[in-house]
Amino acid sequence: MGRQRLGSPTLEQVAALAGVGRGTVSRVINNATGVKDSTRRAVERAIAELGYVPNLAARSLAGRRADAVALAMTERDWRLFGEPFFSEIVRAVGDALADTSMQLLLTLVRTDDERRRLVEYARGGRVDGVLLMSVRAEDRLPDMLAEAGLPTVMLGRRSGDEHVTYVDADNVGGARGAVEHLLRDGRRRIAAVTGPLDMYVTQCRLRGYREALATAGLEPLPSLVAEGDFTEDSGRRATAGILRCHPDVDAVFAASDTMAAGALDVLRSAGRRVPDDVAVLGFDDYPLAEHTEPALTTVRQPLEEIGRAMVRLLLEEMEQPEVAWRHVILRTRLVVRGSA
Hints:
This protein is an alpha/beta fold. It is about 40% helix and about 15% strand. The protein has helices at about 10-20, 20-30, 35-50, 55-60, 85-95, 110-125, 140-145, 170-185, 200-215, 230-245, 255-270, 305-320; strands at about 70-75, 105-110, 130-135, 150-155, 165-170, 190-195, 225, 250-255, 280-285, 295-300, 325-330, 335. The chain has a six-stranded parallel β-sheet, sandwiched between helices. It has a six-stranded mixed β-sheet with strand order 7-6-8-9-10-12, with helices on both faces. α1 (about 10-20) packs across α3 (about 35-50) and α8 packs parallel to α9 (about 200-215). The chain starts with 10 loop residues before the first helix and ends in a 5-residue tail after the last strand.
């Protein structure tokens, strides 16, 4: 443990403790040549003892980079960080950055104060760009980062009129294809378990569900739609409510695999055979989809490709800040297993 001092240690204090000039400390911090090994070690000891943190803003003004990217998760509900989606995206982004010199910093941003702190942190030169995930419709954080001139890429989007660079999956097409699969199987009383309705991804998957029913000449009854929050427990609650209103339901389309797993539990407890009595279809194709009983038919999101595309776009924006924002939508694919 180094000696504690009031306030942040300065470059001058490091120089005094190491017995060298201020310029020598700067050369050590910037890994410049021409510094004796013994001097470099003395400066490094002084930095460690004082807990000195270089002024990254000044370094960035000098044309240097922080070599770090922030992945900010804006979800307000702590429970959702245990869902597979978050860990899969973190892994995909980390893999995409593995061949670069960039460090990945994870941060939670849930309040207005935390939004302001992230923007100031990024503006101070501590990160070179920001990746955002789980952003809801009313969240101004992407705009705050863009207004500050910080390279920013979102996973998903807040609306159909997004003006920040994003990477998304074809949620409308994926959901529509899933429900069409159920219709081809002869299902006619198809329920939907959605995610939070203030998220554009939820609205898109619900739209795909409704479009497929309308094309088949079926009325999408509001009572066949129940809102969840992408957790397994919400899938249980939503499915139980649907069964009470519509005991004749013959299929459930859940907007995530975890909610579909919850639906399977409720149907099993109610004595409904899957898929004989009720088909169940999820969205995402997490590893758990292969281990439910029966295994889940689901819509595969290309999460690895999404992570790679987010990193690629962010690195390009860092190299060319003047480039226009870009929108990338990747295809989904239906994976047929035992539940439908």
